[in-house]
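Today's session is about reading a structure prediction critically. Students often jump straight to the picture, but the first step is always the sequence itself: look for stretches that repeat, for charged clusters, for runs of hydrophobic residues. Only then move on to the predicted structure, which in these notes is written as discrete structure tokens rather than atom positions. Here is the chain we will use throughout the hour.
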Amino acid sequence: MLKTILKSVREYKKAAMLAPFFVAIEVILEVIIPTLMAALIDNGIQAGNMEYTIRTGIILVILCVLSLLAGMLSGKYAADASAGFAKNLRKDMYYNVQGFSFANIDKFSTASIVTRLTTDITNVQQAFMMVIRVAVRNPMMVIFSFVMVARINIGISLIYLAVIPIMAIALFILMKKTHPIFEKLFETYDGMNSTVQENLRGIKVVKSYVREDFETEKFKTINQKMYDLGTRAEKNLAMAMPVMQFCIYGTIVFCSWFGAQNIVNGVMTTGQLTSVFTYSMQILISLMMLSMVFVMITMSQASAERIAEILSEKSTLTNGDAPVYEVKNGDIDFKDVSFGYSEGDDKYVLKDINLHIASGQTVGIIGGTGSSKSTLVQMIPRLYDVSEGSVEVGGVDVRNYDIETLRNEVAMVLQKNVLFSGTIKENLRWGDENATDEDIERVCKLACADEFINNFPDGYDTYIEQGGTNVSGGQKQRLCIARALLKKPKILILDDSTSAVDTKTDAIIRRAFASEIPDTTKLIIAQRISSVEEADVIVVIDDGKIVGVGDHKELLRTNQIYKEVFDSQVKGGEGNE
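Below is the predicted structure for this chain, in token form.
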């Protein structure tokens, strides 16, 4: 786990090494200062030697300034290293997520990925800063101060040897008890993010069904669970402070008692006792700070493990050893294809699919809700890989193509159309980043989008809000169709993508496809028979199986499911007139 996440330090290795280097200098100077103070008291002030006092005082001032500078530099480099480490972690995670297949995304969930990119990385960043600074400073301070105390009085130094194991055992027990709670807490974070995302995306539905109280109660439940887990963890961690204070105050009492005895017996001087107390505070404060480091490490360990999971995850879809970089044409062949979402699951949602689609054909796909129509076409650009059989495009198994090459030749307009924040032009240029204004206007005419775009005050420079909230469903669909056409693909897939437009506009768009992109293979998934009745071939799917293939007239004669759908829509249309 550590090896995985520490790869992200990269160009900040220098800062990560300079931070503890300057910490070491700061510690050495701080350890020397009490010894000089003791000499100043014994040999300068008590001896009445003003020259020695002034000279030693100047040295102390210089050491204090140098210690301050070393501390400032260590803080600067620690901040640079930790912030840079967090930046690289976010970058590495985000880049890795971009290569995930749908199956990888389904494994983690979007809410969990967001939590790992935000809360978890913040925890790890804070822990990293403490490790390269505080976790270096305090053990060094404890060791050096202990050595200095042992030089002054070996008996007093033994007190610390007795205290350190007690503190270490207590901290170990606390970490062991608290770590599982933090793991559950961060899983609950994922659930809360998922709840909030779902609520905000569906806020119109929530309000239209007056389900605010239900959604509030759902959030209250998960929020309470986070509170319960958080308080359990904090209660455990809160025990660290009383343990530290007990050890600190106990040590001070013993040191004071032994020190007083040694002064009375003439074994120690006043200056030495002063330095012992200074070293005692340095040791005890360092031990207390170490306890804080252990607390932070306990919190961040669960976060680090979750980050490492994302970084270590490999996409289930990868290029082969010798990928093909050219798609010859839009021929599509499904050969004995079966598919299940879970690996090793024998409950297939697609079963024994055999289908040939010639390049340039227009193919309609009809089927009931849940019949796996969308899943079928997602095999073509390798959004999912088949569980059995093969899918070929241009005579080549899609698994043998370079993924980017394949997807550049397949344009998809999905059921859930997505537009991104930016202008209409910027959204359309997802299809072709080098498209000219003339190209954009041409495809918008084909998709019947130009009529409403020209009515906007800013035309093609109209700003689209995140998710396309400032355009209607039909407008969003037409923009997404235009974006797909701009790719000039060999295969165009329309997944129920004209459901929000009227039948007249739907017909105009289909006629434009036939005249403008005759060589492009067009797959149209639709609920309306009118959207596919002019297709060269219509495929009827039921329960993950192909139950009919033919043109409109043929299927009306031979396929009962198709005929029932047609009759219901025709009769429904007559009844509405």
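Discussion point for the tutorial: The mean pLDDT is 84.
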